[in-house]
Design goal:
Blueprint lengths: L1 E5 H11 L25 E3 L5 E5 L2 H17 L8 H20 L11 E3 L16
Parallel strand pairs: 1-4
Antiparallel strand pairs: 1-3, 2-3
Helix pairs in contact: 2-3
């Protein structure tokens, strides 16, 4: 999967889902990520817009969904929870799950699924339909 999001959103995902030494706010019980498999090595940032494009493998996507779901399962009022982490995890879980649910392995064309987050808002206040 390839995701495009603001570099601050990618930084949030990276710190929460793909912890590395001194990363900060990750969920410890999900362990460290093998540096050879760290998706941060496949990031392109557009310096004008601040949008990052990141390629994630299937196991990376599963890890994202698992950790976002773990944050949601603890509830918004859990003592270790903060409002930003809960809200971001809820939004990201919904977006990632929407894309994964739309993938039909029986009709795959081999194209890399695309997910755009933080693309701005339509005039109705909703994000544009950016799952492809």
């Amino acid at each position: 999967m390839e995701i495009t999001c603001h570099e601050d959103t990618w930084e949030f995902i990276k710190r929460l889902v793909f912890p590395y030494p001194a990363a900060g706010c990750h969920i410890a019980f999900h362990g460290q990520v093998d540096p050879q498999n760290f998706p941060g090595k496949r990031v392109r940032v557009d310096s004008r817009s601040g949008m990052a494009t990141v390629t994630l493998s299937g196991p990376h996507v599963v890890r994202c969904l698992t950790i976002f779901r773990a944050v949601l399962a603890s509830g918004p009022d859990h003592f270790s929870q903060d409002a930003q982490r809960y809200a971001m995890s809820e939004r990201l879980y919904d977006r990632f799950a929407e894309l994964v649910d739309a993938i039909d392995p029986d009709t795959s064309t081999g194209a890399i699924p695309q997910l755009v987050i933080d693309a701005g808002l339509e005039s109705d206040g909703h994000e544009p339909d950016t799952v492809t």
